[in-house]
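Here is a complete protein record:
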Amino acid sequence: MEEFFKLKRESIERMDKLETSITIMESSLGLYKEKLDTAMSQVIKNIEPESWRYYHAEIYSDYDEIETDLPSVLRNSVLVHVYSIFESIVNKLCVIHKKRKT
């Protein structure tokens, strides 16, 4: 039984570390979005109205990548990571079961 409790503890620790990493990434993305908003505000103050569209497209193309592409990549990588943790747990359970069976 001790092996099961050890596996449970290790698995919970791995998931907690993953959750912490995701939280850090999300806060970093939020800060980057704020910087882009600040940059856009500064650009708008210093340009002529007819040039605004060009600068808006330039700055918000980065924002769009952060808003749409990066979260999708992040979700997919988290899914793969969680699956690998799950697979590792199942493999270890199989090893424990095999030891007990023999």
